[in-house]
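Bumping with the actual sequence this time:
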Amino acid sequence: MSSGKPSLVDGEINDNQNVSDLEKNKIMSAGDSEEVQLNRNGDDTTQTIKLYKRRWFIVLLFSSYSLCNSFQWIQYGIINNIFTKFYGVESFTIDWMSMIYMLTYIPFIFPVTWLLDKKGLRVIALVATAMNCAGTWIKVTSVRPDLFAVTMLGQFCCSLAQVFILGMPSKIASVWFGSEEVSTACSIGVFGNQLGIAVGFLLPPILVPNVEDMDLLAYHISIMFYITAGVATLLFILVVIVFQERPELPPTQAQATARCIPPEQYSYTASILRLLRNKPFLLLILTYGLNVGCFYAVGTLLNRTIIEHYPGEELNAGRIGLTIVIAGMVGSLICGIWLDRTKTYKQTTLAVYLMSFVGMLVYAFTLSLGHLWVVFLTAGALGFFMTGYLPLGFEFGVELTYPECEGTSSGLLNCSAQVFGIIFTICQGKIIDNYGTLAGNIFLSVFLFIGSVLTGFIKSDLQRQKANQLATAAVPSDPEDGNPPASAVLKGSRF
Protein backbone atom coordinates (compact mmCIF):
# COMPACT_ATOMS: atom_id res chain seq x y z
CA MET A 1 0.00 0.00 0.00
CA SER A 2 1.20 3.50 -0.71
CA SER A 3 -1.40 5.63 0.98
CA GLY A 4 1.20 7.65 2.87
CA LYS A 5 -0.04 6.33 6.22
CA PRO A 6 1.47 3.69 8.44
CA SER A 7 -0.04 0.25 8.03
CA LEU A 8 -1.29 -1.90 10.87
CA VAL A 9 -0.51 -5.56 10.28
CA ASP A 10 -0.94 -8.41 12.76
CA GLY A 11 -1.70 -5.93 15.51
CA GLU A 12 1.61 -4.10 15.03
CA ILE A 13 2.52 -0.68 13.65
CA ASN A 14 4.79 -0.81 10.62
CA ASP A 15 6.43 2.60 10.11
CA ASN A 16 7.91 2.57 6.63
CA GLN A 17 7.64 6.34 6.25
CA ASN A 18 8.07 9.36 8.48
CA VAL A 19 5.04 9.71 10.71
CA SER A 20 4.19 12.58 13.01
CA ASP A 21 3.89 12.00 16.74
CA LEU A 22 0.20 12.91 16.52
CA GLU A 23 -0.50 10.26 13.89
CA LYS A 24 1.40 7.62 15.86
CA ASN A 25 -0.49 8.47 19.02
CA LYS A 26 -3.80 8.06 17.19
CA ILE A 27 -2.78 4.62 15.98
CA MET A 28 -1.54 3.58 19.41
CA SER A 29 -4.79 4.70 21.01
CA ALA A 30 -6.74 2.69 18.46
CA GLY A 31 -5.86 -0.51 20.25
CA ASP A 32 -2.19 -1.39 19.65
CA SER A 33 -0.15 -1.14 22.82
CA GLU A 34 3.09 -2.42 21.32
CA GLU A 35 6.20 -0.25 21.49
CA VAL A 36 7.37 1.21 18.16
CA GLN A 37 10.87 2.57 17.64
CA LEU A 38 12.13 4.41 14.56
CA ASN A 39 15.74 4.09 13.48
CA ARG A 40 17.56 6.38 11.10
CA ASN A 41 20.70 4.88 9.69
CA GLY A 42 22.16 8.00 8.11
CA ASP A 43 21.34 7.31 4.49
CA ASP A 44 17.85 8.85 4.46
CA THR A 45 16.12 5.48 4.89
CA THR A 46 14.02 4.47 7.84
CA GLN A 47 14.26 1.13 9.58
CA THR A 48 11.76 -0.10 12.13
CA ILE A 49 12.40 -1.83 15.42
CA LYS A 50 9.23 -3.21 16.92
CA LEU A 51 7.78 -5.74 19.30
CA TYR A 52 5.58 -8.46 17.85
CA LYS A 53 2.64 -9.66 19.91
CA ARG A 54 3.37 -13.21 18.81
CA ARG A 55 6.49 -13.10 21.00
CA TRP A 56 4.32 -14.10 23.96
CA PHE A 57 3.06 -17.18 22.12
CA ILE A 58 6.62 -18.19 21.23
CA VAL A 59 7.86 -18.01 24.82
CA LEU A 60 4.74 -19.76 26.15
CA LEU A 61 5.11 -22.59 23.63
CA PHE A 62 8.73 -22.97 24.65
CA SER A 63 7.71 -23.01 28.31
CA SER A 64 5.18 -25.75 27.56
CA TYR A 65 7.60 -28.19 25.98
CA SER A 66 10.21 -27.34 28.59
CA LEU A 67 7.56 -28.25 31.19
CA CYS A 68 6.91 -31.61 29.54
CA ASN A 69 10.60 -32.42 29.52
CA SER A 70 11.46 -31.30 33.06
CA PHE A 71 8.46 -33.24 34.43
CA GLN A 72 10.27 -36.41 33.45
CA TRP A 73 13.47 -35.43 35.25
CA ILE A 74 11.94 -36.12 38.65
CA GLN A 75 9.07 -38.53 37.82
CA TYR A 76 11.14 -41.55 38.88
CA GLY A 77 12.97 -40.02 41.82
CA ILE A 78 9.91 -38.70 43.65
CA ILE A 79 8.51 -42.25 43.90
CA ASN A 80 11.94 -43.86 44.20
CA ASN A 81 10.73 -46.62 46.52
CA ILE A 82 7.91 -47.64 44.13
CA PHE A 83 10.13 -47.91 41.03
CA THR A 84 12.75 -49.72 43.11
CA LYS A 85 10.14 -52.36 43.93
CA PHE A 86 8.70 -52.55 40.40
CA TYR A 87 11.97 -52.96 38.51
CA GLY A 88 13.82 -54.81 41.28
CA VAL A 89 16.77 -52.41 41.34
CA GLU A 90 18.55 -50.48 44.08
CA SER A 91 17.54 -47.01 45.25
CA PHE A 92 20.79 -45.54 43.92
CA THR A 93 19.97 -46.93 40.47
CA ILE A 94 16.68 -45.01 40.44
CA ASP A 95 18.61 -41.89 41.52
CA TRP A 96 20.45 -42.21 38.22
CA MET A 97 17.17 -41.76 36.36
CA SER A 98 17.41 -38.15 37.49
CA MET A 99 21.17 -37.83 37.35
CA ILE A 100 21.23 -39.00 33.72
CA TYR A 101 19.72 -35.60 32.87
CA MET A 102 22.80 -33.99 34.40
CA LEU A 103 25.32 -36.46 32.98
CA THR A 104 23.99 -36.24 29.41
CA TYR A 105 24.17 -32.46 29.43
CA ILE A 106 27.93 -32.26 30.02
CA PRO A 107 29.29 -33.86 26.80
CA PHE A 108 26.50 -32.65 24.52
CA ILE A 109 26.21 -28.99 25.52
CA PHE A 110 29.04 -27.77 23.28
CA PRO A 111 27.81 -29.34 20.02
CA VAL A 112 24.26 -28.22 20.85
CA THR A 113 25.24 -24.59 21.50
CA TRP A 114 27.27 -24.65 18.27
CA LEU A 115 24.13 -25.89 16.49
CA LEU A 116 22.08 -23.14 18.14
CA ASP A 117 24.53 -20.53 16.86
CA LYS A 118 24.61 -21.97 13.34
CA LYS A 119 21.01 -23.09 12.79
CA GLY A 120 18.98 -20.93 15.16
CA LEU A 121 16.03 -21.37 17.48
CA ARG A 122 13.62 -23.26 15.22
CA VAL A 123 15.97 -26.16 14.46
CA ILE A 124 16.83 -26.50 18.14
CA ALA A 125 13.13 -26.43 19.09
CA LEU A 126 12.31 -29.13 16.51
CA VAL A 127 15.09 -31.45 17.64
CA ALA A 128 14.24 -30.92 21.33
CA THR A 129 10.55 -31.75 20.94
CA ALA A 130 11.24 -34.68 18.60
CA MET A 131 13.71 -36.27 21.04
CA ASN A 132 11.39 -35.66 23.97
CA CYS A 133 8.46 -37.20 22.09
CA ALA A 134 10.51 -40.26 21.11
CA GLY A 135 11.67 -40.77 24.70
CA THR A 136 8.12 -40.72 26.07
CA TRP A 137 6.94 -43.39 23.63
CA ILE A 138 9.95 -45.59 24.39
CA LYS A 139 8.97 -45.45 28.06
CA VAL A 140 5.43 -46.50 27.17
CA THR A 141 6.89 -49.82 25.93
CA SER A 142 8.97 -50.35 29.09
CA VAL A 143 6.26 -51.13 31.65
CA ARG A 144 7.49 -54.60 32.63
CA PRO A 145 9.74 -55.48 35.57
CA ASP A 146 12.35 -56.97 33.21
CA LEU A 147 12.53 -53.91 30.94
CA PHE A 148 14.42 -51.45 33.12
CA ALA A 149 17.02 -51.00 30.35
CA VAL A 150 14.24 -49.85 27.99
CA THR A 151 12.89 -47.28 30.43
CA MET A 152 16.46 -46.06 30.95
CA LEU A 153 16.80 -45.65 27.15
CA GLY A 154 13.62 -43.59 27.08
CA GLN A 155 14.89 -41.42 29.91
CA PHE A 156 18.19 -40.96 28.06
CA CYS A 157 16.32 -39.64 25.00
CA CYS A 158 14.44 -37.18 27.19
CA SER A 159 17.66 -36.12 28.89
CA LEU A 160 19.20 -35.49 25.47
CA ALA A 161 16.21 -33.31 24.59
CA GLN A 162 16.89 -31.31 27.74
CA VAL A 163 20.29 -30.27 26.35
CA PHE A 164 18.45 -28.51 23.52
CA ILE A 165 16.08 -26.81 25.96
CA LEU A 166 17.95 -25.43 28.97
CA GLY A 167 19.96 -22.79 27.15
CA MET A 168 17.05 -21.31 25.21
CA PRO A 169 15.23 -18.96 27.64
CA SER A 170 17.77 -16.14 27.47
CA LYS A 171 18.14 -16.61 23.69
CA ILE A 172 14.40 -16.39 23.09
CA ALA A 173 14.16 -13.37 25.40
CA SER A 174 16.91 -11.54 23.53
CA VAL A 175 15.70 -12.42 20.02
CA TRP A 176 12.01 -11.62 20.59
CA PHE A 177 11.66 -9.15 23.50
CA GLY A 178 12.43 -5.49 24.19
CA SER A 179 15.19 -4.32 26.50
CA GLU A 180 12.70 -3.48 29.26
CA GLU A 181 11.19 -6.96 29.33
CA VAL A 182 14.01 -9.42 28.56
CA SER A 183 14.40 -10.46 32.21
CA THR A 184 10.67 -11.01 32.57
CA ALA A 185 10.62 -13.05 29.34
CA CYS A 186 13.59 -15.12 30.51
CA SER A 187 11.75 -15.74 33.79
CA ILE A 188 8.72 -16.98 31.86
CA GLY A 189 10.97 -19.32 29.88
CA VAL A 190 12.50 -20.71 33.06
CA PHE A 191 8.99 -20.77 34.58
CA GLY A 192 8.02 -23.65 32.29
CA ASN A 193 10.97 -25.73 33.42
CA GLN A 194 10.13 -25.07 37.06
CA LEU A 195 6.45 -25.81 36.57
CA GLY A 196 7.37 -29.12 34.95
CA ILE A 197 9.45 -30.05 37.98
CA ALA A 198 6.51 -29.04 40.20
CA VAL A 199 4.15 -31.28 38.23
CA GLY A 200 6.82 -34.01 38.40
CA PHE A 201 6.75 -33.78 42.17
CA LEU A 202 2.94 -33.74 42.36
CA LEU A 203 1.51 -36.15 39.79
CA PRO A 204 3.59 -39.37 40.00
CA PRO A 205 2.64 -40.07 43.65
CA ILE A 206 -1.02 -39.53 42.67
CA LEU A 207 -0.95 -41.52 39.42
CA VAL A 208 1.21 -44.35 40.77
CA PRO A 209 0.08 -45.38 44.28
CA ASN A 210 2.24 -47.75 46.29
CA VAL A 211 0.27 -50.98 45.77
CA GLU A 212 1.55 -54.53 46.19
CA ASP A 213 -0.15 -56.05 43.12
CA MET A 214 2.51 -55.81 40.38
CA ASP A 215 0.00 -55.99 37.53
CA LEU A 216 -2.00 -53.13 39.02
CA LEU A 217 1.20 -51.18 39.60
CA ALA A 218 2.20 -51.71 35.96
CA TYR A 219 -1.22 -50.39 34.90
CA HIS A 220 -0.78 -47.19 36.93
CA ILE A 221 2.75 -46.63 35.58
CA SER A 222 1.55 -47.11 31.99
CA ILE A 223 -1.21 -44.53 32.52
CA MET A 224 1.41 -41.99 33.61
CA PHE A 225 3.63 -42.80 30.63
CA TYR A 226 0.74 -42.59 28.12
CA ILE A 227 -0.34 -39.18 29.42
CA THR A 228 3.21 -37.87 29.10
CA ALA A 229 3.58 -39.27 25.57
CA GLY A 230 0.30 -37.70 24.45
CA VAL A 231 1.30 -34.26 25.71
CA ALA A 232 4.79 -34.55 24.18
CA THR A 233 3.31 -35.50 20.79
CA LEU A 234 0.90 -32.56 20.78
CA LEU A 235 3.70 -30.11 21.62
CA PHE A 236 5.92 -31.53 18.88
CA ILE A 237 3.14 -30.95 16.33
CA LEU A 238 2.63 -27.37 17.56
CA VAL A 239 6.33 -26.59 17.24
CA VAL A 240 6.43 -27.99 13.71
CA ILE A 241 3.48 -25.84 12.68
CA VAL A 242 3.94 -22.50 14.45
CA PHE A 243 7.38 -22.05 16.07
CA GLN A 244 9.20 -19.19 14.34
CA GLU A 245 12.95 -18.57 14.15
CA ARG A 246 12.90 -14.83 14.88
CA PRO A 247 10.76 -11.74 14.24
CA GLU A 248 11.06 -10.00 10.90
CA LEU A 249 12.41 -6.88 12.60
CA PRO A 250 14.62 -6.83 15.72
CA PRO A 251 13.17 -5.78 19.09
CA THR A 252 16.24 -3.99 20.51
CA GLN A 253 19.42 -2.16 19.53
CA ALA A 254 21.46 -5.11 20.77
CA GLN A 255 19.67 -7.44 18.36
CA ALA A 256 19.92 -4.92 15.53
CA THR A 257 23.67 -4.86 16.05
CA ALA A 258 23.92 -8.65 16.19
CA ARG A 259 22.05 -8.98 12.89
CA CYS A 260 24.59 -6.74 11.18
CA ILE A 261 27.37 -9.25 11.77
CA PRO A 262 28.10 -11.46 8.73
CA PRO A 263 27.87 -15.17 9.67
CA GLU A 264 31.32 -15.85 8.25
CA GLN A 265 32.83 -13.51 10.84
CA TYR A 266 31.53 -15.64 13.71
CA SER A 267 33.75 -18.30 15.29
CA TYR A 268 32.18 -20.57 17.91
CA THR A 269 35.58 -21.62 19.25
CA ALA A 270 36.72 -18.02 19.54
CA SER A 271 33.48 -17.18 21.35
CA ILE A 272 34.07 -19.96 23.90
CA LEU A 273 37.63 -18.79 24.46
CA ARG A 274 36.48 -15.21 25.02
CA LEU A 275 33.94 -16.39 27.56
CA LEU A 276 36.56 -18.42 29.39
CA ARG A 277 38.77 -15.33 29.63
CA ASN A 278 35.93 -13.28 31.11
CA LYS A 279 36.77 -13.33 34.83
CA PRO A 280 33.40 -12.06 36.15
CA PHE A 281 31.62 -14.66 34.02
CA LEU A 282 33.93 -17.44 35.23
CA LEU A 283 33.01 -16.56 38.80
CA LEU A 284 29.35 -16.63 37.85
CA ILE A 285 29.80 -20.08 36.24
CA LEU A 286 31.18 -21.37 39.55
CA THR A 287 28.56 -19.74 41.78
CA TYR A 288 25.66 -20.67 39.51
CA GLY A 289 26.82 -24.29 39.49
CA LEU A 290 27.03 -24.41 43.27
CA ASN A 291 23.52 -23.02 43.77
CA VAL A 292 21.69 -24.99 41.09
CA GLY A 293 23.69 -28.14 41.85
CA CYS A 294 22.37 -27.95 45.42
CA PHE A 295 18.83 -27.61 44.08
CA TYR A 296 19.27 -30.68 41.87
CA ALA A 297 20.50 -32.70 44.86
CA VAL A 298 17.60 -31.58 47.06
CA GLY A 299 15.06 -32.49 44.37
CA THR A 300 16.59 -35.85 43.44
CA LEU A 301 16.87 -37.05 47.05
CA LEU A 302 13.66 -35.50 48.36
CA ASN A 303 11.74 -38.80 48.48
CA ARG A 304 14.49 -40.52 50.46
CA THR A 305 14.88 -37.53 52.77
CA ILE A 306 11.18 -37.20 53.62
CA ILE A 307 10.48 -40.94 53.90
CA GLU A 308 13.32 -41.31 56.42
CA HIS A 309 11.58 -38.94 58.85
CA TYR A 310 7.95 -39.48 57.78
CA PRO A 311 7.49 -43.13 56.65
CA GLY A 312 4.66 -43.79 54.21
CA GLU A 313 4.37 -40.13 53.20
CA GLU A 314 5.22 -40.50 49.51
CA LEU A 315 2.30 -38.28 48.55
CA ASN A 316 3.37 -35.53 50.94
CA ALA A 317 6.96 -35.83 49.70
CA GLY A 318 5.63 -34.94 46.26
CA ARG A 319 3.62 -32.08 47.70
CA ILE A 320 6.67 -30.72 49.49
CA GLY A 321 8.56 -30.82 46.18
CA LEU A 322 5.63 -29.03 44.58
CA THR A 323 5.79 -26.37 47.30
CA ILE A 324 9.51 -25.85 46.68
CA VAL A 325 9.05 -25.29 42.97
CA ILE A 326 5.82 -23.25 43.09
CA ALA A 327 7.45 -20.89 45.59
CA GLY A 328 10.48 -20.74 43.29
CA MET A 329 8.32 -19.88 40.30
CA VAL A 330 6.89 -16.95 42.22
CA GLY A 331 10.42 -15.93 43.15
CA SER A 332 11.56 -16.19 39.52
CA LEU A 333 8.80 -13.93 38.22
CA ILE A 334 9.30 -11.38 40.98
CA CYS A 335 13.06 -11.33 40.38
CA GLY A 336 12.59 -11.04 36.60
CA ILE A 337 10.22 -8.09 36.95
CA TRP A 338 12.52 -6.50 39.53
CA LEU A 339 15.51 -6.76 37.20
CA ASP A 340 13.60 -5.16 34.32
CA ARG A 341 12.67 -2.26 36.60
CA THR A 342 15.98 -1.71 38.42
CA LYS A 343 18.78 -3.42 36.42
CA THR A 344 20.43 -4.25 39.79
CA TYR A 345 21.78 -7.60 38.61
CA LYS A 346 24.60 -8.17 41.08
CA GLN A 347 22.76 -6.83 44.12
CA THR A 348 19.68 -8.95 43.44
CA THR A 349 21.72 -12.06 42.66
CA LEU A 350 23.74 -11.69 45.86
CA ALA A 351 20.67 -11.09 48.03
CA VAL A 352 18.85 -14.13 46.62
CA TYR A 353 21.98 -16.28 47.01
CA LEU A 354 22.38 -15.33 50.68
CA MET A 355 18.73 -16.09 51.36
CA SER A 356 19.15 -19.49 49.67
CA PHE A 357 21.92 -20.25 52.16
CA VAL A 358 19.77 -19.16 55.09
CA GLY A 359 16.79 -21.12 53.76
CA MET A 360 18.91 -24.28 53.43
CA LEU A 361 20.08 -24.02 57.03
CA VAL A 362 16.55 -23.51 58.36
CA TYR A 363 15.27 -26.44 56.27
CA ALA A 364 18.09 -28.67 57.51
CA PHE A 365 17.47 -28.04 61.21
CA THR A 366 13.66 -28.25 61.07
CA LEU A 367 13.27 -31.36 58.92
CA SER A 368 13.41 -33.77 61.86
CA LEU A 369 11.02 -31.91 64.19
CA GLY A 370 8.16 -34.28 63.36
CA HIS A 371 5.76 -31.65 62.00
CA LEU A 372 5.06 -31.86 58.27
CA TRP A 373 3.57 -28.36 58.18
CA VAL A 374 6.94 -26.99 59.32
CA VAL A 375 8.66 -28.85 56.49
CA PHE A 376 6.19 -27.39 53.98
CA LEU A 377 6.89 -23.89 55.31
CA THR A 378 10.69 -24.12 55.36
CA ALA A 379 10.82 -25.96 52.01
CA GLY A 380 8.69 -23.24 50.44
CA ALA A 381 11.03 -20.53 51.73
CA LEU A 382 14.03 -22.48 50.43
CA GLY A 383 12.40 -22.92 47.01
CA PHE A 384 11.45 -19.24 46.73
CA PHE A 385 15.09 -18.20 46.77
CA MET A 386 16.97 -21.24 45.45
CA THR A 387 14.72 -21.83 42.44
CA GLY A 388 14.14 -18.10 42.02
CA TYR A 389 17.88 -17.77 41.42
CA LEU A 390 17.74 -19.63 38.08
CA PRO A 391 16.68 -16.77 35.75
CA LEU A 392 18.89 -14.34 37.68
CA GLY A 393 21.94 -16.35 36.76
CA PHE A 394 20.91 -16.56 33.09
CA GLU A 395 20.28 -12.85 32.73
CA PHE A 396 23.35 -11.80 34.72
CA GLY A 397 25.41 -14.06 32.47
CA VAL A 398 24.01 -12.46 29.31
CA GLU A 399 24.79 -9.00 30.68
CA LEU A 400 28.37 -9.95 31.53
CA THR A 401 29.06 -11.60 28.17
CA TYR A 402 27.22 -9.46 25.58
CA PRO A 403 27.57 -9.56 22.59
CA GLU A 404 28.39 -13.27 22.77
CA CYS A 405 25.59 -15.69 21.92
CA GLU A 406 23.10 -16.05 24.77
CA GLY A 407 22.81 -19.79 24.20
CA THR A 408 26.55 -20.25 24.69
CA SER A 409 26.70 -18.37 27.99
CA SER A 410 23.59 -20.15 29.27
CA GLY A 411 25.03 -23.48 28.15
CA LEU A 412 28.21 -22.97 30.16
CA LEU A 413 26.18 -22.00 33.23
CA ASN A 414 24.02 -25.09 32.89
CA CYS A 415 27.06 -27.31 32.31
CA SER A 416 28.47 -26.15 35.63
CA ALA A 417 25.11 -26.85 37.28
CA GLN A 418 25.01 -30.42 35.91
CA VAL A 419 28.55 -31.18 37.08
CA PHE A 420 27.88 -29.93 40.60
CA GLY A 421 24.44 -31.57 40.55
CA ILE A 422 25.95 -35.01 39.98
CA ILE A 423 28.67 -34.45 42.59
CA PHE A 424 26.29 -33.09 45.21
CA THR A 425 23.63 -35.76 44.61
CA ILE A 426 26.09 -38.64 44.95
CA CYS A 427 27.89 -37.10 47.93
CA GLN A 428 24.74 -36.07 49.79
CA GLY A 429 23.19 -39.50 49.15
CA LYS A 430 26.21 -41.23 50.69
CA ILE A 431 26.27 -38.79 53.62
CA ILE A 432 22.55 -39.40 54.27
CA ASP A 433 23.11 -43.19 54.19
CA ASN A 434 25.96 -42.99 56.69
CA TYR A 435 25.30 -39.93 58.85
CA GLY A 436 21.65 -38.92 58.34
CA THR A 437 19.75 -36.14 56.59
CA LEU A 438 20.98 -33.31 58.82
CA ALA A 439 24.61 -33.93 57.88
CA GLY A 440 23.63 -34.16 54.19
CA ASN A 441 21.80 -30.84 54.24
CA ILE A 442 24.59 -29.09 56.17
CA PHE A 443 26.95 -30.35 53.47
CA LEU A 444 24.90 -28.44 50.89
CA SER A 445 24.65 -25.38 53.14
CA VAL A 446 28.43 -25.07 53.27
CA PHE A 447 28.65 -24.80 49.50
CA LEU A 448 25.81 -22.30 49.34
CA PHE A 449 27.74 -20.13 51.79
CA ILE A 450 30.87 -20.40 49.63
CA GLY A 451 28.83 -19.44 46.57
CA SER A 452 27.41 -16.41 48.38
CA VAL A 453 30.89 -15.16 49.25
CA LEU A 454 32.16 -15.66 45.69
CA THR A 455 29.13 -13.84 44.25
CA GLY A 456 30.21 -10.75 46.18
CA PHE A 457 33.44 -10.70 44.14
CA ILE A 458 31.72 -10.67 40.72
CA LYS A 459 32.30 -7.37 38.94
CA SER A 460 28.99 -5.99 37.69
CA ASP A 461 29.96 -5.06 34.13
CA LEU A 462 26.60 -4.89 32.33
CA GLN A 463 27.65 -4.90 28.67
CA ARG A 464 24.18 -5.34 27.16
CA GLN A 465 22.78 -2.40 29.12
CA LYS A 466 25.71 -0.26 28.01
CA ALA A 467 25.09 -1.16 24.35
CA ASN A 468 21.45 -0.11 24.51
CA GLN A 469 22.25 3.10 26.40
CA LEU A 470 25.04 4.11 24.02
CA ALA A 471 22.84 3.47 21.00
CA THR A 472 20.09 5.70 22.32
CA ALA A 473 22.43 8.44 23.51
CA ALA A 474 24.27 8.58 20.17
CA VAL A 475 21.20 9.59 18.15
CA PRO A 476 21.01 13.32 17.26
CA SER A 477 17.78 15.28 17.50
CA ASP A 478 15.40 15.23 14.55
CA PRO A 479 15.93 18.59 12.79
CA GLU A 480 12.24 18.78 11.85
CA ASP A 481 10.63 18.50 15.27
CA GLY A 482 13.53 18.86 17.70
CA ASN A 483 12.78 15.45 19.26
CA PRO A 484 15.28 12.58 19.15
CA PRO A 485 14.22 9.39 17.41
CA ALA A 486 13.42 6.60 19.80
CA SER A 487 16.60 4.67 18.98
CA ALA A 488 19.24 4.04 16.40
CA VAL A 489 21.01 1.09 14.94
CA LEU A 490 24.38 0.71 16.60
CA LYS A 491 27.15 0.52 14.04
CA GLY A 492 30.01 -1.90 14.32
CA SER A 493 30.70 -5.54 15.01
CA ARG A 494 30.79 -7.71 18.08
CA PHE A 495 34.27 -8.77 17.03
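The C-alpha coordinates above came from a reply further down the thread. DSSP finds 20 helices and four strands in the chain.
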